[in-house]
Amino acid sequence: MQPTIAMCARQRGLTLNLSAEKMPSGQGAKMDIKRGNHYIWAHYLRGWSHNQRDVFHRTKKGNIQAVSTKGLGREYEFYKLTPLDNVDVEFLERWISKCDPGIKNFHYGFLRRMIVYSCLLAVLDPVKDKEKRDDITFNTIEELHTTIENDVRPTLDALRNGNFLALEEENALNNLISYMGHQFSRTKVFRNIIDSSARSGNQTINELMIKNNWFLAILVGVNMGYSTAMCYETKNVVWLINNTDTRFITSDNPVINVHPEVLNRKPNGIPPSHTDLYFPISPTLGYMVNDSDYWGKGKVEATNEMVVALNRQMLIRCDETVYGDSMEIIKQTKLPKA
């Protein structure tokens, strides 16, 4: 007989207190089920808005419009949690086993939590407990990202106001690095990379990659933030101050590698040997954690040529669109000639 996920949990020493997990605290209050998920934080995009609502972007039809950030970088049920079975758990444990020892316990703890939620979904009645099931299925990953966003928001806002002293606040830098890591892996671009890499000769592995892409995105985001923090003192950290007439743009894939080895090329799914991570914080401020000194060191007054080059990289690596604070900057940003 195929062992159940509950048996799988017991084998891993988990005590399942199903009544204590993911249950609504209020009586009779309707829960807010978050099905429309932002893979780009709306508050981040508002850094390019003049009215705290609209930013300019190019539509699929090629038109340039100012649109509310509420509807951008968003997809229906993008963070839907898929219940884990025994095969999923063993597959994910193999991934975790390859991670840095310093972060393994975090990943195993997150996996245990997802096992518990999978058990809950197995025992909750589809009709009577629909709201509780939907809370687990649609809110779990969304709430995780909301926590990360809330942690970094004061630092992000301070940096946009030119206050670099905010980075000296407790956990401020770690929160920024953590957010950057998760923003790298929570996008459609990254999910498509995972799905497209599921092309081995082993059909079972391919299916497991696609089914568990939501978990792998969390794993990679945590790993990226952790490795960046651990190596931060050896990296070349750059703050690009943009006082030129050309503003920084961002995109639906805002954390990108701009190391000289990969310039003007889309990601191919193969991990690069070197990274210069670039993350535009506002039209006038860019943040970089680099292996090279190609873009300078420390606080750098960006030249117009640098801004144009970085905007071009943002366009090359976007999924569907880029975002800017004016129609003109979207028009000006073009792909390099073949």
SSE blueprint:
Blueprint: H1 5-11, E1 36-38, H2 42-45, E2 54-58, E3 64-68, E4 74-76, H3 86-97, H4 101-123, H5 130-160, H6 172-185, H7 188-197, H8 203-211, H9 213-230, E5 236-241, E6 250-251, E7 256-257, E8 276-282, E9 285-290, E10 298-301, H10 304-317, E11 322-324, H11 327-332
Helix pairs in contact: 3-4, 5-6, 6-9, 7-9
Can you offer a commentary on this structure?
A five-stranded mixed beta sheet has the order 7-8-9-5-10. The protein starts with a helix and ends in a 6-residue tail after the last helix. It is built from eleven helices and eleven strands. By secondary structure, it is α+β, with helices and mostly antiparallel strands. The chain folds into two domains: 1-22 and 31-39 and 78-233, no CATH class; 235-333, no CATH class. The protein has helices at residues 5-11, 42-45, 86-97, 101-123, 130-160, 172-185, 188-197, 203-211, 213-230, 304-317, 327-332, and strands at residues 36-38, 54-58, 64-68, 74-76, 236-241, 250-251, 256-257, 276-282, 285-290, 298-301, 322-324.
Low-confidence stretches: none
How many E-type strands? 11
Relative strand content: 5-15%
Largest sheet: 5 strands, mixed
Element-level helix/strand string: HEHEEEHHHHHHHEEEEEEHEH
Q: Total number of helical segments?
A: 11
Number of domains: 2
Helix content: 40-55%
Shape assignment: globular
Radius of gyration: 21 Å
Helix/strand class: alpha+beta
- Main sheet strand line-up: 7-8-9-5-10
Mean pLDDT: 90
Distance between the termini: 59 Å
